[in-house]
Amino acid sequence: IEQDSYWKPPAVEDVRDIEMPAAVHELEGLLDRSAALALRSDVPVGIFLSAGIDSSLVARAAARAGTVAHAFSLGFTEQTHNEVPGAKQTAAQLGIPITEVTLTASALERFVDLVAHADDPLADSSALAVWTLAAEAAKHVKVVLSGDGGDELFGGYLTYPATLWHASVTSKLPGVITRAVAAASESIPTGSGKVTASYKVMRYLRAVAYPPGEAHFSWNGTWLPERAALLVHEGPARQAALDALRFMADRHHLRGRITLGHLQRADLADYLVNDILVKSDRMSMAHGLEVRAPFLDADVAEFALRLPAHLKAGRVGHGKRILRALAEKTYGVNLSRAK
Question: Sheet harboring 70-75: ordered strands across?
């Protein structure tokens, strides 16, 4: 028996010399081709559509390449969290019929079923959202497209500027200061809005006492290792919780000088395949629905990873810079603050 990977990311040092206009043009062609491949099916194909850049670009590429039968967008009664109006605007522009699915507390009635279909422990709060959206989509189509992979490949996560800033600035502060700041972070009021500025500050400051490579894996986590360890019995399980961030940083060689490329490859190897895609696949297949992600075409992925970092993200400003440039070219509006 031989075991191998069908594709490996290019080396971190393998970076192209290309500027934004040429890169946008090339990406447009690659995404159109990938969307056309994803539309190959004996049945109608739909799309999970939000107000974000990723799914909007996939929808546009798919509409150019063929026919998207239906769009499905998840909404909330709280308008501060609701992206359906933006999704409806995109769907209308592309001529795609759209169905709104509202997530309410009643979805928790199926939580035990969700856990059973997850099969493995899956601590991703949006699993309930994907489950609910897939349940409705499966009534109309058997295949949908998604924007999965856009954040990892094009530097969209807030964790990237956070880690790069930590590596270059706050990690160089004396330990006594970073520990004091981390302890004080718990007193910061975060409010109830969607990812408020105070919430981001609190999440950043609470991990500043960790080395950058370890802090990177804490930004998205609910509990820091010391808190997580209190949830399990003493012994190997508790020690594993305490060592989790250190294990992850060592596993992905996030020591010493850390670049955006290092962080992207770490997330591609762990967060994407062990969380995002597991969630997407199992929550959808629970309803007999197949999800296809055009961004994860090997040619698109290799193109993205070989781009210069300044075309994707940095310590300041928004990430996914090249996707924003393509979106502005495509839709003719400024999307500098879009997801």
Answer: 98-102, 70-75, 45-48, 143-145, 290-292
Determine the Cα–Cα distance for residues 253 and 240; give it in Å rounded to an integer.
Answer: 19
- The burial class, CB within 10 Å (0-12 / 13-18 / 19+), for 175 is exposed
Which tokens belong to 302?
A: 């290799």
DSSP 91: H
CA distance 26 to 43: 30
Residues 235-246: tens digit of each pLDDT: 999 999 999 999
The structure tokens listed for 1 are 């028996």
Dihedral, CA of residue 107, residue 113, residue 114 and residue 115, to nearest 10? 130
CB atoms within 10 A of CB 270: 14
Q: Name residues whose C-beta falls within 8 Å of residue 66's C-beta, 6 or more positions apart in sequence.
A: 35, 36, 39, 45
Taking each helix axis as running N to C, give the angle between helix 20-38 and helix 53-65, from 0 to 180 degrees, rounded to the nearest 10: 60
- For 66-112, how does the pLDDT look when each residue is reduced to its tens digit (9 = 90+)? 899 999 999 988 877 788 999 999 999 999 999 999 999 999 999 99
Residues in a beta bridge with 47: 71, 145
